Amino acid sequence: MDMNDIREKGMVLLGCGKMGSAMLKGWLDGGLPATSVWVNDPKPSEWLQGLEGLNLNADLPPAPAVVLVAVKPQMMADALPTLKAMGNGSTLFVSVAAGITIATYEDMLGDRTPIVRAMPNTPAAVGRGVTAIIGNGAAGADHADLAEALLSAVGQVVRLESEDQMSAVTAISGCGPAYTFHLIEAMAAAGEANGLAPELALQLARATVAGAGHLAENADEDPGQLRVNVTSPNGVTQAALEVLMNETDGFPPLLERAVEAAIKRDKELGA
Ligand SMILES: NC(=O)C1=CN([C@@H]2O[C@H](COP(=O)(O)OP(=O)(O)OC[C@H]3O[C@@H](n4cnc5c(N)ncnc54)[C@H](OP(=O)(O)O)[C@@H]3O)[C@@H](O)[C@H]2O)C=CC1
Ligand SMILES: O=C(O)[C@@H]1CCC=N1
């Protein structure tokens, strides 16, 4: 199964807020016709309302290739039962919701429903996402291939060995863009605090993070070596890194605490 199945049989997007829209933008940019997509969302954005050909809050096809579930975990119990008739059939359910386990979907839709749990991130909007996936017993190789085809249209895809890995994945790559955007904000604020005009500070911070990310992805050296390449012995970077890399109150213990808090919340949402 591949993107042609989605073109022919259609895809239902249940919930189309920030994450659903980020992925939809990537798929449309990649050539998926809007006419193949049914969006079900009570308050569709102006962008959705302006998409020509999109089936917006229209009657759903009886057996779409994929239902992509992108409502908030807290809304799941209200939203998902409306699609129960599509359970236990050929339709693949792909959920991007944090925390909600495959067992919960099987309870709501039937345990013969092919289900893939996925954790994407918002750079999908520009085709640069990364998504981790894991399927249930009813999802065969064909379903996993379909989920991978769909999600690799908006970035990289990794397959997990166990659903237990999903909380940590969520805390790293699902939430990670927010950490990175905050790094840009914090760098810009530090620039401003040291006399740079706000626009200049933001331009420098944004271009630096974007450039460093691109270099980290494309260079032969690992990130540690790339860091060393910036750090002249006894120079300026070294002075900053002695603060940032402090084992007690530097970046590593801070990020570890942040990731632990994210994992705790992910598990609460799934309970
Ligand atoms: N944002 C991100 O970076 C990521 C989010 N996710 C997951 O994606 C999911 C969506 O998150 P996000 O896009 O940020 O949230 P949003 O609130 O932006 O989007 C959810 C959308 O679902 C709509 N909705 C609410 N109830 C229903 C319903 N009964 N039927 C159909 N649609 C409904 C909401 O409408 P309304 O606003 O009117 O309530 C909203 O438009 C979550 O489960 C989250 O865990 C996963 C990875 C990354
Ligand atoms: O904040 C959240 O709950 C979702 C999950 C990953 C990113 N956003």
Summarize the structure.
The chain is α/β, with parallel strands linked by helices and 271 residues long. Helices cover 49% and strands 13% of the residues. It has an eight-stranded mixed beta sheet, sandwiched between helices.
Describe the structure.
It is an enzyme of class 1 (oxidoreductase). Keywords: Amino-acid biosynthesis, Cytoplasm, NADP, Oxidoreductase, Proline biosynthesis. It is found in: Cytoplasm. It catalyses: L-proline + NADP(+) = (S)-1-pyrroline-5-carboxylate + NADPH + 2 H(+); L-proline + NAD(+) = (S)-1-pyrroline-5-carboxylate + NADH + 2 H(+). This protein has about 270 residues and is α/β, with parallel strands linked by helices. The protein folds into two domains: about 5-165, NAD(P)-binding Rossmann-like Domain (Rossmann fold, 3-Layer(aba) Sandwich); about 175-270, ProC C-terminal domain-like (ProC C-terminal domain-like fold, Orthogonal Bundle), CATH 1.10.3730.10. It has helices at about 5-10, 20-30, 45-50, 75-80, 100-110, 140-150, 165-175, 175-195, 200-220, 225-230, 235-245, 250-270, and strands spanning about 10-15, 35-40, 55, 65-70, 90-95, 115-120, 130-135, 155-160. Strands 3-2-1-4-5-6-7-8 form an eight-stranded mixed beta sheet, with helices on both faces. Helix 7 crosses helix 12. The chain is elongated, with a radius of gyration of 21 Å. The relative contact order is 0.11. It binds NADPH dihydro-nicotinamide-adenine-dinucleotide phosphate and (2S)-3,4-dihydro-2H-pyrrole-2-carboxylic acid (A1CAB). (2S)-3,4-dihydro-2H-pyrrole-2-carboxylic acid binds near residues 98, 170, 174 and 175. (2S)-3,4-dihydro-2H-pyrrole-2-carboxylic acid (A1CAB) binds next to helix 7.
